[in-house]
Every structure is written in structure tokens, then in C-alpha cells.
Amino acid sequence: MFATLFTVIGALSVASWLYENLRNSVVLLIHRFKVSREDSLVQKYGPWAVITGGSDGIGKAYAHYLAQKGMKVLLVARNAAKLSNVAQEITEKYGVECRFAVADFSKGEQIFPQLEQELAPFDIGILVNNVGVISEKPILLERMEKSLLWNLINVNVGAATLLCNIVIPQMKRNKRGLIVNISSMAAFSPTPYLNVYAATKAYITSFSHALHEELKPYGIECQTVSPGFVHTSMTEYLAPTEGSQTPLSRRLLKVNDFIRYAGYTLGKVSTTCGHWSHGIQVAILKMLPETLRLRIFTRLYTELLSEFSNSS
């Protein structure tokens, strides 16, 4: 009797793991071999894409990808000079309209009335909630500045939540739209010495999955993207220096490699790691119990704390 029970439990566990980790790959393969014509992103969702944190890194990569697909782009970030340069670069390269709005999400609630007014005239088809901050390096919680703690909450949690609140009514009226929420692999396990950042990304993952179900009846899609280490300004401290490489620095994914895969998943799957290599890492993590995942993350970030921080 117990042998039968354990066999059934094992079979269900394997089936659940296979479904969770292979369904996206199967869906993407089906899309790749489809012979029927697919609507363009503009036809499917609308003419404008809004991208937060669009002046650098992953946000900038999404801006280039969507502009290349013919979408008009509205960049949102806090540095006007960088935004202007990226907007000019995109317009010249792809021949599409690219505008920008300056907003410092670290200031919290006060910036959203003005931002809502600036977004109102645009027929927004895609919203990419990419903006995020992280502690410069692993750090003990009590050594974090209060301003950084509020930045993590206001930027990583507040920006995506409030922007969804702003754009969803228009998307519902149009009965179309796509929201892309950039989470992180850190959301899959509590992460010591990166605890607040990981917790904000766990919020984004939970929020985004729930929103996907909430918006489905209205013809609006919501995708959750949970990448691992990508070489951006946020992970610059991990980048290899000449003659010095670590296992982590060797695993840093180039932004162009990330967006090539992540862009292809738009409108096809509701969850992705953004790149197949990160998907493999997550699949392995999901095989392990949470206590073991926590031990792995604890060991990894304890080593990083020792290597990159003055803390002990």
C-alpha cells in the first residue's frame, strides 16, 4: 500500500515538474514551426510601448527590440540626458517615433499624478515594468541606509504596481494589451544579504501571476520575466576583470543574448526566465526543497559578501 502511495506521489511530482518546466519550451517550439501568419505586435497590442528604466540595460534592450518590431516607444526613467540620447538613437536606427518622460520612482507616490497625465494621450499597447534598484553589493540589513530601503520599496514594488493601475483601464477599453513585469531568479528563494531585493522580486512574481489571471477575461496579457545574472549596471561588480574570472562572472549573460530570446517570448508565454540558460538553472532549483535552495543561496551570497563587502 505504501509503495503504491509513494509511486503515485512520485509520478505526480515528476509530472508536475515536467509540466512546469517544459510547457513553455513546447509552446515556443509550436510557435516557431507555425506556418500561419501572426499579427505584428502593433496589430496585436497597439502602437505604443512604455518602458520604465528604459535608458539602460534590459529596459534599453526591450526598447530597441520593440522599436525594431515597428512599435513607437515611450521611455521612462530619471536621467533626462540619457533618455534623450537613447530616444534619438532609436529614432535614427529604426525610423520610429520615440519619446521620453522623466520620472524618479524613488520619490514614491508624489510622481504618479504627473506621470499619469503624461501617459494619458498615448494608445499604450505594451507596458514593460523594468525599472529596479539593488544594493550595490551584498550587505547586511542593518548596514543598509534607510534611503536605500525606501528606494527598493518605491522603485521595485511601487513603480510596477502603480503603472499597472494607470494603464489597465485604457487597455480594458481597447480589449487588448500586454504587460511585461521584470522579476528575478532571486524571487525563487529567500536570499540572505540580498533579502530586501529578493523579497521585492517575490512580490513582483506573485503580483504578476495573479494579474495574469485577473486580466485574461479582458483580452489583456501579463508576462512575468525572471532572469538570472545579466550583465547590466546593476551587476557590474560581478563583471570579470582582465585576468580574473569567477564562476559567477563567467555566467553573466550579455544583454543582447538575453533580449534575443526574451523578445521572442512576447505574446507567446506568460512566464519565462528570458533566456534558455536561466530556464535550466530555475528548473534545477525547482527540483530542490526550499530549505536546500535557501542553503545554496546563503552559501553563494555569503561568499559574495566576503568578497565584495567590507562587512563580516
UniProtKB/TrEMBL annotation:
One of its GO terms (cellular component) is endoplasmic reticulum. SUPFAM superfamilies: NAD(P)-binding Rossmann-fold domains. It holds the Pfam family adh_short. It is found in: Endoplasmic reticulum. Keywords: NADP, Oxidoreductase. It comes from the Eukaryota. Belongs to the short-chain dehydrogenases/reductases (SDR) family. This is Steroid dehydrogenase. It comes from Anopheles albimanus (New world malaria mosquito).
